[in-house]
Every structure is written in C-alpha cells, then in structure tokens.
Amino acid sequence: MPISSHIAGLGTETAFEVLARAQALAAGGRSIINLGIGQPDFATPPHIVDAACRALIAGHHGYTPANGIPALREAIAADAAARLGAAVDPDQVVVVPGAKVTMAFAMLIFGSPGAEILHPDPGFPIYRSMIEFSGATAIGYPLAGPDLDFSADEVLARITPRTRLIIVNSPGNPGGGVMAPAELARLVAGLAAHPDVFVLSDEIYARLVFDAARHTSLLTVAALRERLIVLDGLSKTYAMTGWRLGWGIWPGALAELATRLAVNIYSCVNTVAQHAGVAALTGPQAPVDHMLAVLAERRDFLVAALNRLPGVRCGRPGGAFYVFPDITATGFSARELQDRWLDELGVATLAGTSFGPRGAGHIRLAYTAALPDLREALRRIDGWLRRHAAPLPRSA
Ligand SMILES: Cc1ncc(COP(=O)(O)O)c(C=O)c1O
C-alpha cells in the first residue's frame, strides 16, 4: 500500500489493546478486574456533569476559538496562580482534546530528522512513538533505582548539540515517582549551559501526590519559563478521561504555533466539555481530595500485599495511581504475566516493556479499582504465583 513510512512505523499504547481484550472477556461473562489502563474508577463529580448539561441547554453548540474558550483559559491561569503561585497569561494556554495532544504538538514543533528528544524510559509510550513519528531520534534516559526516581544527572549526560527537547513526567507513569526538589534544582542548574534546549513537563498527575509538599511544578521555576511547555488536563484529576480535555501552557510564540496545529487538525475542542472544564477548575475541589485519600489507602494496601508475593518486590510511589513492581524473581517475563493473568485469572495488568526497554522485569498495576477488587486480584495472583512460580534466588 502506498502509505507514508511515518505512519507505517507509528507506535501504540498497549493499554488500549489490553482494555479491548479485558472488555471482550467481560462481555463474554468473565469476572474481570481491570488494573490495566490508567483511568480513575470514580464518576466525574456531579457539578461538572451539570455544567455540561447546562451548556448544552443554553445553546453552546458551535465552534469556539481554536485555543479554547476564554473562560476556560482564564480558569486554567487562575488555578496555576492559586495552587502554585505561578503567573500564567491565559493567551499562553492552548486547550486541547486530551492532554496527549499537547505531547503530539510538542513533538511536531520540535521534532525533525537530526533532532534528538529525551524521554523517560520507562515512560508513557506515546512519547517515543510521537518523537519517532516526527522524524526525530528518541533518546531514553533511565529513572534511578527501585522507585524509578528522576535523576537529573542521567538526563544532563544525554544532552548533545542535537538535543531540542527534554520530556519530564512527575508524578510519573508507569512508576508513580515524584521528582525530588534536589533533582529539579540539579536539572535547572545543568540546563543553564544549554539555553536552546526546551522542556516539556508532563504534569497530568500533579494533583495526585500523596505528600503535596514533595511535588514541585516546573511552572514555578522562573529560570525555565521561557523554554517550558507544561502539559496538563482534567482526565485523571477529575475522573474525566472520556471527556477529552487537556491543555498546554506554551512559552512565547509557541502558543500561536500550537493553535495553528489545532486549526489544521480539529478546529476546536468539544464546546460542552470546555464548559464542564470551567466548572471542574472553579468548583468544589472536595471530590479530588476524596479521590486522593481513597487512592492513598489503595496504594498502601497494594504495596504491602505485593511485597508478600513470591518473587515480587514493590516500592512505595509518591503519586499517580500506579505501582510498578519488579517481578524478575518470579522467573516469568512481564509479557507472559500480563497475558496469562488476564486470560487465566481475569486480572488486567500491563507489562513493563510496554513503557520502554528499561521496563523489562516489571509489571504495572493501576489501582483504579475498589479495595475489595484489589484484594480479590491479589488473591488470584498470589494463588497463581504459588502454583506456577519457582522463584529464583534473589541476587544481593
Ligand atoms: C503520563 C501521561 N501523560 C499524558 C496522558 C494523556 O492524558 P489524556 O487522556 O488527557 O490525553 C496520560 C494518560 O494515561 C499519561 O499517563
């Protein structure tokens, strides 16, 4: 077929394949516990749903400005000011249909043959996929130690004269790691020697941090603001994955470029979703606090339960809703566990290799299921490992 080689080589996100398989098994009557795809099992808070209904009834049925309705861009700027003390000009905000789109725009703006873009490995799989789609070279940098901590030295060591963009993600997917303030300071200091290198900070999980004092938004780092793109959105914080609403905060003339991409590709974001977004950001935040408290309880349960499994070692992530245990000592590959646990146990998880080569030997579990379901999933996995695994002796 005469299709472009760019498209033929485009990567994907295994989470959607596992989701489709899990849903097909559930439709066939199987009891499925879905710890695969990263979406909260909470409902969108009712006041947000109400705002969307009211927008429809009030006749908000037409196109909006390509960069988003002013009320939403102003709410995003006000939220950054209130939560982070960061001044954001609403004109630098570009509202997009899902946070992922800011990622794609950044790759299209910075990526070209010969350019290098640094991304975390393991990391969100679309980083690599879209970097390569742009023609640029994807350079993975490792996250350090069992808790997949961000290490500024690992990033700085990979900068070359061809580096155009560095992607950082805190709290991170798949490991839930939160960037330590000292590492951020090292990164900022090191980047002073590379003034032409831009940073894309994926902060989609920024509200989901169990110890809020530990997380620093890059928006608060004055030295980076002129070359910083912040990716954020409503999907995770407000349980709105299906509404498709995110944004980018872009420096200087890049907001205009991102808006032009929007005009070329989708014109504007669904109008009703944008009105719902205003309600999410300006309305009561208690549902977010409640979700975070529930997630913390689940994390604590899961970390303890995973560490009791034969051959499994799990750290204690500081944010998001993922754990990423090391399963090397089970003697199985992550991909085999992903496939067999879904087929044989009805428990959907994701192999660490879906997040890059350095994810080998790990499996991601999203704790986006209620505690009784998590308990049941762990009971099934425990039984399976005890039936099948012959743990290898652990190396020191
Ligand atoms: C690290 C990271 N960034 C961005 C996204 C995309 O968010 P959205 O669903 O709003 O496009 C995800 C979703 O899983 C994610 O994990």
List keywords for this structure.
396 residues; alpha/beta; 7-stranded mixed beta sheet; 3-stranded antiparallel beta sheet; 13 helices; 12 strands; globular; binds pyridoxal-5'-phosphate
Summarize the entry for a quick read:
This protein is an alpha/beta fold and 396 residues long. The chain has 13 helices and 12 strands.
Task: Provide a descriptive summary of the structure in words.
The chain has a 7-stranded mixed β-sheet with strand order 2-8-7-6-5-3-4, sandwiched between helices. Helix 5 (100-110) runs parallel beside helix 6 (125-134), helix 5 (100-110) packs across helix 9 and helix 11 (286-307) runs parallel beside helix 13. Helix 8 (181-191) links the parallel strand 5 (163-169) and strand 6 (198-202). It has helices spanning 5-8, 14-27, 46-57, 70-84, 100-110, 125-134, 152-156, 181-191, 254-265, 271-282, 286-307, 334-345, 371-388; strands at 33-34, 93-96, 116-121, 137-142, 163-169, 198-202, 228-233, 246-249, 322-323, 347-348, 350-351, 363-366. The mean pLDDT is 94. With 396 residues, it is of the alpha/beta class.
Task: State the strand order across the main sheet.
Answer: 2-8-7-6-5-3-4
Following the backbone from N to C, one meets helices and strands in this order, namely HHEHHEHEHEHEHEEEHHHEHEEEH
What overall form do the CA principal axes indicate?
A: globular
* End-to-end distance: 52 Å
**Ligand species:** pyridoxal-5'-phosphate
Largest sheet: 7 strands, mixed
Helical segment tally? 13
Count of strand segments: 12
Strand composition percent: 5-15%
Helix content percent band: 25-40%
Secondary-structure class: alpha/beta
Unreliable spans: none
Report Rg. Answer: 21 Å
Mean pLDDT: 94
